Design the sequence.
């Protein structure tokens, strides 16, 4: 049985590549729907938790078998020596996911597995663990395929996109990307923070997620360096905690100054200030140059580089800086209008393209958008389009090779290759 690392749809090949990089070419890595299966032991699970930028969690398999009825799930879950995982004083949670399961009720399936765990512990100790849906000591994930059930222990705890640098008190900003999606954008672009990858610039940075993720990559900061993981409290991992301390110390020793500059900005001072404070908490304030500026007017911060941007769109945030919108410093104007249905969006993107063609020739722009017609709105021909999901919203990450004057006519590929074309 293999570890399972779920990820956002579309990210599977990038995650497979990341796992091979983290565990070595000898590791057995297999693509699955919605994630990647990886052969590995407890130290591998700890390493993946600490270093994966793309996985949502790392799940440890505890039981697997065929099923047609909820009672078979009870029997399957009873095969595990749960006393090795949980004491009666600890708490439990079970989540169930399913793909074309024949069962009538997933709630009942969850209940049967919970009964099995509690019965096994009670028979061994006379007491049963209790349920805590918020902060359980042991979180189990039951995955049901049409014919097979797999029960996993969650070794991550909080989802891995929570790197530990966002301040819960300060809020999240407006429509921030998940850190895992920002990392997927950078991975899809093949940007790894090496000198040859070029400077990175997010001119609509919001809470700073893309720039902070990029800066951590460039500085060799492990994404999990600042957070805790569920396995630190799980009984089967107790014997590996010395190895865990070593892994963390090794990761710390790999930190370095960034080899490339990273620039970020937003039209709103409130957002650049917020992003700067996020960067401080993420330990990368020295690697990012923030500036409050309108993307429609901002000159390039250096001669050549990579623009990586998740621009304002649709109902979520109205673009500012377009004619007729609020001046930059007066705050946000919410729009209920669609991406190309007014609210300044169409004009914003046409002005953005004109500005980029005039001032950013030689740059590569990667733009994440839910609008499949973004290239038409920009009047630019994309050279790549990578399917990615922003939560429930299907998006494309478009690559535009910016050339002075007119759009460059190059065929787009709708694919997942982690590397840009050789002529990038
Ligand atoms: C979708 S949000 C970006 C979210 C960001 N990627 C994050 O993870 O937090 C778009 C951002 O563009 C900014 N924005 C809107 N109009 C702008 C303009 N003309 N120039 C620069 N930034 C702008 C908004 O203030 C907002 O923070």
Sequence:
């Amino acid at each position: 049985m293999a570890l399972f690392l779920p990820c956002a749809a579309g990210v599977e090949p990038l995650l497979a590549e990341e796992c091979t990089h983290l565990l070595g070419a000898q590791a057995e890595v297999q693509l699955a729907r919605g994630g990647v299966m990886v052969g590995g032991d407890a130290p591998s699970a700890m390493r993946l938790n600490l270093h994966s930028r793309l996985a949502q969690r790392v799940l440890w398999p505890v039981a697997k078998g065929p099923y047609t009825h909820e009672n078979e799930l009870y029997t399957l879950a009873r095969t595990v020596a749960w006393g090795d995982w949980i004491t009666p004083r600890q708490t439990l949670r079970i989540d169930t996911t399913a793909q074309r399961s024949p069962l009538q009720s997933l709630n009942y399936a969850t209940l049967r597995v919970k009964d099995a765990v509690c019965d096994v512990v009670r028979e061994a100790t006379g007491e049963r663990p209790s349920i805590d849906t918020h902060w359980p000591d042991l979180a189990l994930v039951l995955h049901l395929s049409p014919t097979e059930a797999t029960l996993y222990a969650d070794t991550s705890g909080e989802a891995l996109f929570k790197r530990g640098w966002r301040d819960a008190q300060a809020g999240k900003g407006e429509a921030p990307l998940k850190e895992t999606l920002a990392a997927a954008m950078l991975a899809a672009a093949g940007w790894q923070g090496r000198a040859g990858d070029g400077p990175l610039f997010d001119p609509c940075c919001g809470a700073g997620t893309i720039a902070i993720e990029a800066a951590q990559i460039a500085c060799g900061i492990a994404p999990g360096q600042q957070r805790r993981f569920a396995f630190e409290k799980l009984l089967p991992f107790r014997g590996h905690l010395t190895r865990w301390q070593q892994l963390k110390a090794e990761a710390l020793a790999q930190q370095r100054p960034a080899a490339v500059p990273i620039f970020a900005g937003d039209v709103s001072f409130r957002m650049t200030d917020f992003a700067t404070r996020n960067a401080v908490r993420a330990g990368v304030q020295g690697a990012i140059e923030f500036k409050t500026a309108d993307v429609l007017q901002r000159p390039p911060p250096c001669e050549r580089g990579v623009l990586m941007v998740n621009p304002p769109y649709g109902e979520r945030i109205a673009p500012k800086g377009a004619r007729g919108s609020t001046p930059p410093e007066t705050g946000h104007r919410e729009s209920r209008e669609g991406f190309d249905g007014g609210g300044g969006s169409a004009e914003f993107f046409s002005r953005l393209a004109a500005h980029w063609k005039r001032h950013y020739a030689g740059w590569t722009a990667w733009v994440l958008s839910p609008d499949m017609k973004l290239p038409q709105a920009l009047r630019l021909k994309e050279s790549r389009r990578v399917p990615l999901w922003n939560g429930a919203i299907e998006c494309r990450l478009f690559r535009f090779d910016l050339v002075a004057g007119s759009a460059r006519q190059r065929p787009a590929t709708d694919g997942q290759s982690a590397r840009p074309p050789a002529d990038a």
Remarks:
- The chain has a mean pLDDT of 89.
- The radius of gyration is 23 Å.
